[in-house]
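User: I need a structural model of ParB-like N-terminal domain-containing protein from Marvinbryantia formatexigens DSM 14469 for a docking pre-check later this week. Nothing fancy, just the predicted structure tokens so I can convert them on my end. Input:
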Amino acid sequence: MGKFGVVSDLLSDVSVAKTGRDMDTVWIPRERIRKNPRNGYEISNVQELAEDIARCGLAQPLEVTPAEDGNYLLITGERRLTALDDLIDRGIWKKDIPCFVRTMAYYDLPLSAQEKEMYAILRTNCLNRDKSDADLYFEVTEWGKIISELKQKGYKQISTDSGNISLRGRTREIAAAQVHISTGQAAKIERIQKHGHEKLQEAVRKGRIRLAAAYNVSLMTQEEQEAFLEQCAGKESIRQEELENFRKNAEKEQQNLQEELVREFCTRNSRETQKMLECCRREKDTRKKAEAVRRAVSPHGSMYSSGRDYAWRFGNSAEGISLQVENRHACMSYVRFVRILEKLYDGLSGMQKDTESGGPETVPEEEGNALAGEEKDIPAATGMTEGRGSLPELKNNQQRREWLQRYKEWGLWYRDPNIDVNYYRYIFPDGTELVAAEYPCREHYWSDGACDEVFYHLLEKKTKNHRGQIFDGKYREEITGETELVNFLRIQAGRSEK
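Assistant: Understood. Predicted structure tokens for ParB-like N-terminal domain-containing protein:
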């Protein structure tokens, strides 16, 4: 037969009725009939059928095919045979069973013996049957295998008593036409087949879950599917309500994990957190806040940082944020990140909420609010200078470096308890400010233990830029290096001598 050959008798209602009339009935003992393990149709209402057979007799013979051991393998009529078994056990049915005997050679199909047998099961069980979701799943799955095998052998079209069937197009659409369901429903079944956990597919085959609910489960990850099915392991049926409850609990757990990791990030990255909070305060709309945070932390598309037990990745707007600490991992959008910041920092007011009491953390009066932008001078500790006026006599660069390292002698300007940062400020006669931001006891993957970090910010007054324009550097965020500071101190010493 060529690639465009004609295959007769593919799922024809007319042929099913006609061949049933043409075949002779054979009476076969029950012990010589075996049920077909490949028949995936559900069996229901067996007791009602048994009572009907007891009253009126068997209306339609079974259909069997000869087996290799001399017995017979059931093709169609498993529900009738199950009802007859009940009558035999009760002593009501005492005779042999009427059957139609048909060999697989009868089916003129270019299929393997295994798929030809399955075709016979599908063809003879498709009529006069109220199909359950499990039956539809079984039929679409098996028809897909048959159609795929015909396509692999090069067949483009087949002919039936009811007309030609084209094999062009998607397999699921052709299978849907044979099962008489919509292509949308067939697509859902295909999704369950390809992405559903093996336990989910087994639940569908056994009729424990409806197709609509199974499709929604297949949208989850394999780990989530397995967790949900384990939760429903002891239940006879799995309902949509149980899936919704599972999703709500999983969403709540995910939100708690996100908040936990954002809090961990803020604790480990106080400088970046301060920058993010300052960006958020300049905007009113949440989406604008999120975009401002993205531009601040990953202006060139992506920012990645990792250590021995953590990893952060801030991608573009579409990629979002990924936070990981040890074996805990969560992804979120920038909007979600900003909303968590608002929750943790009391509406971005700079006061971190006390997670135990539910209220804001009390800030001592002597401590200013760095994140709110307040410039409140706090009385210096005993023995400290005011950090103002002329510089002490510094004869060389080494003495200037040592003076920078003694920044605590300037006096504490303010402390931010939310991000654990101490700020020290020295104001020069011309109004230029030098701020030392101290990050105490910070841990890094390149160091064995915690150590203090200090970053200097030189905010010059009436400075000229490269265009010759004069500006006030009070609001600059850049870090000033030690070499530049030493050179600045040398110039200041020269000015004081004049």
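Before docking, keep this in mind: Residues 249-344 form one domain.
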